[in-house]
Design a protein that fits this description.
about 75% helix, mainly alpha
């Protein structure tokens, strides 16, 4: 369960931070309105939702392997946040890649809870959600501060996207390494 907990902390931390910093960039240097910047996330969250809702259609032996693979996809996507920060179709496609990669979070949650006795399910679920929310707060506070500092020192949010992308990529790739231990667990997941 410990590797799943690390993954549960890392995925929402990077996801929340990505949404926060990207919104600031869209409304900052790209000068989008709040409505336009909100709509710019539709492809990203659609990809996230499609993976999150359909992962059980994959063969069962792929479920745990999907977690490090998804994190690696998201990490690779984060590396291009800075270079593609000028906006446009390439930037939108990049957000889809990141959403697709982090859509594996329900697999992590299922893996973390599969050995919990039914009598403890409510407590375990509450702990899991608390961990995820705390992770978002910590991610936004730390990497968000990095973003704001870089934006102020560099004079643009586009400049800040480079450092933020690298910070998020390294965080998620660390999560992918932790999630590799999930692939070795041969216990079938409960449904």
């Amino acid at each position: 369960m410990a590797p799943a907990c690390v993954a549960i902390v890392i995925a929402p931390a990077s996801w929340g931070t990505f949404l926060f910093t990207t919104t600031l960039h869209l409304q900052g240097d790209l000068r989008m309105s709040p409505l336009e910047s909100g709509l710019a996330f539709v492809p990203c969250v659609t990809a996230f939702g499609l993976v999150g809702l359909n992962w059980q259609r994959l063969p069962a032996r792929w479920h745990r392997r999907a977690v490090p693979a998804g994190f690696a996809v998201a990490g690779a996507g984060y590396l291009f946040v800075g270079p593609l920060a000028g906006g446009g179709l390439a930037y939108e496609a990049l957000t889809v890649v990141i959403g697709f990669g982090l859509g594996v979070m329900p697999i992590v949650m299922t893996t973390a809870l599969r050995h919990v006795p039914p009598g403890d399910a409510a407590d375990a679920s509450g702990l899991l959600l608390t961990l995820m929310q705390l992770a978002q707060v910590i991610g936004i506070a730390t990497v968000g501060t990095l973003f704001l500092t870089l934006a102020e020192s560099g004079g643009s949010t586009r400049h800040a996207e480079y450092g933020t992308g690298w910070a998020l990529a390294s965080t998620v790739l660390f999560g992918a390494l932790c999630a590799l231990s999930l692939t070795r667990d041969r216990t079938p997941a409960r449904r």
